[in-house]
Structures are given as C-alpha cells and as structure tokens.
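Q: Convert this sequence to structure tokens.
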Amino acid sequence: MVIGLYEVAAVRTSEQALMRTLPDGALMDRAGAGLAAYCSRWLGRAYGAQVVALIGPGDNGGDALLAAAHLARRGAAVVAVALQADRLHSRGAAALRRAGGQIRSLSVDSELKGLVGQADLILDGIVGIGATGELRAPADDVVEVANDAPGLRVAVDVPSGVHPDTGVVDGPAFRADRTVTFGAIKLGLTVGDGREHVGDLEVLDLGLAPHLPEPRAWQLTDGDVAGLLPRAGHGDDKYSGGILGVAAGSADYPGAAVLSVGGALRVRSSLVRYVGPAAYAVSTAYPEAVCADAAPIEAGRVRAWAVGPGLGRDKRAAQVLTDVLRMDVPVVVDADGLRLLARRRELLQRRSSATVLTPHDKEFEDFGVPLSADRVGAATELATRLGVTVLLKGAATVVVEPGGRTYVNASGTPALATAGTGDVLTGIIGSLLAAGLPAGLAAAVGAHLHGRAGQLAARGGALLATDVIGAIPAARDSVAD
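A:
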C-alpha cells in the first residue's frame, strides 16, 4: 500500500488531535515503550546491555528517557547524558531514576567518548521534529563523538541535525544505524542528505492514522508497483500495449539509443519503434524493435515518445525534439533533449499532452530554477513553472507532477550512478507512458522498477547499464513477490 510522507505541521496537528482523546502523557508513554521494544529486539537482549541516551530538552528527550527507563527495568545499565541538565523532561527523568538508571550532566569530551565507546546502544534524543537548522553547541560536538562509536546508534523520531521536512543537513548530524519515527514518516527522512543519516527506518504506530491529513508526498511499495506494471493478456498482440517511439542516439552516441530501446522492450511485450541515425546499432542489439534511420518523426500509431539520450545538440537534434514535442502524445525527455529544451521552453507551451522531464542536477539547473538542498521544493517549483512532471534524479529520486503531487522513490543503489543507466530509465518510463499510465505514476513506477533492477544487477559486482536492462524481468518478479 502506498506510503504517506508528512511534514511536521501535519504531524503536530494530528498529535494534538489524538492527545485530546487520551490521558495526559499517554502518547509519550506509547512512544517510549515502543522505542524500548525495538531496541531490545535489535540488541537481542536488554539485561546486561550498556545503554547511553543522549538527552536534549523537550519531548524528544522525554521519549528517549522513557525508553531508557523501560530498558533499565529490564536489566540494562543505562546512563543518560543531559546536554542541558536544567531543562530535562521531568517525568522522563523521574522514570529513569526510579528504574535505576543514571543521569549525568555533559562534561568533558573524554568522559563522553568513554561512555559511548563502551555502549552497546546509543539513543539520540537530542532534538526532535521541532528543531531546524544547524545544531548548536554542544549538540554538534556530541553527535560527532557518537558517530565514531562502535555501538548501535538509534535515532528517536528523527536523527538530530536533519531537517524533518526537507532532509537538509546544515552541519554535523547524528548518523543512525536505525531510526524509529513516531506515528508517520517525516518527509525529510526520505530525501536529500537526511536519507543518508536515517539507516533502517521503522514507523512506530501511535494511533495517528485517523487524524492525519493528505500527505505531502507518497512512496510506492513493491506491491503498488506490481499492481501498476502492464501485463499482456491472452487477447493482446504487439500493438495492444501501445507503441513507444524512441528518438535517441546519434552517430557519435549510438549506445544511448540501444540502452533506451532495451529498457523499453524489457518492461512489456508491445512494439518499440526507433527512428534515428543509430538504427543499425539498435536493430543489431534488438531485432525486436522496428528501426528506421531516415523516417520522419511522426505520430502514426505511436502512443508515446522517449526523446533525448545521446541525441546531440546540433540543428538536426533540435528539429527532432521540436517534431516530437509537437505531437499530441505523452513524451519523456532526457539528457541532450533537456539541454535543448532549456533553450526552447516555448515548445512546452504548445503541448496538450503530458511531458516528463528527467534531469540530473546540472540539467535541472539549466532551466533557471536554483537547486537548493530542499530537492522536493526545487522540483515542485520547476514542475509548476513549466507545467510538466519532473523526475529529479538523485540518491532519492523525486517525482513531482505539475499539480504538486509528489513521489519519493525508495529503491535503488549508489551503483546506478554510472554511464547509461539514465538512458535505460528513459526507455522504461516511455514504455509505461505508451502503456497508458499517467505521467506522474509512469515516472514513479519507472524509477522504482529501475532501482530494483539496479539492486539486483549490482550483486554481480561492477554494474553496467546493460546489466540493469537484463535485470528488469527479475525486478518485475521481485516486486510481485
């Protein structure tokens, strides 16, 4: 089932609505007990475990103190290090003391290093979802010491130093092995640099669901993708799933056309029509494709187009892009097509069908929208300004429709950051557009499937773009399991 990603304001409002139905402190008690249960499971025990809880002021520190109290009652040796001893959450501190845990004021670095260096578990309860911006002293030094410790690092709700809405990390931040977030996934845990600090993410159900509004963004699951991928029926033929036209490649870069066509063919059984100077290379690699090196760029029976990879930026390439975008069918534009389009944005004003742009960072910046650390915000601005669906590539690929609906991709591997994998993604998305998926879903489903294929292909060592193509059928099977 599709997963909702929320901004802090929505989570806060939902928490307040839920708390009005509960006794005082009940929600925090749920959070502390659930957090302790996760920690016990990961440690394999509580009795005898060495636990250090890093405690800041406010409710996040209170959650960590209550969890630490549960662990202490189960026999863990717990030390809570208070960054501001005069601002401790009083109820949480009292619970920990009753359970036999210790509370110490933060003092010299050597003492802290000694504590965390011996800890089996380090709980990050320094700041929560109410904090934004760079961590101030002494929190910045504390997280750096904790990040060097060998024990299991667990963030409480959100790693300290990560902006909960945007994933922006302005300075030192807690680098968790695991994060337990409360009630709902915060958007900043899935995007930007924040994603790299979260580790494995668990959502602790506090009962917020009936009070949560529409999410800020969505994340597709394997099950969602399996249900959306096109599948051939008994009565289908090669035309049934919609023909994809591919305008890519050049004399200098025929491989880009081969990769785009390969990605498209592996997604479904329907026809792919290639037009361009790489026709010989494409037909040699994929005789299943219909190829022409001099045919006019025209719609015919084509239901969608993929244009741009390896196209070049000369007059011929510019004319190809113009011809494709004049057609009243969905189009996905990548690579050289994006560079050309950034100088000819008026081509988008004449379009009535959906357009998907798939830039990496430098291609994105060609369109005149600053690419800030808030990648969702930047992609939203470009999608709104141009009236297109934007797929912004990155460690966490972001898809934003012109109306603002947003998807954050959860699959993938750093190994996909290699030549040609983006061309494969273009073919995948184009194929899904030709199958009739709406632009936003075609981009989001394509990114998820591409990421899963990359994960499977990377198991064999150094990853090539052709490996990703070969892994697409297995990726389809894996999401359906």
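The longest strand covers residues 50-55.
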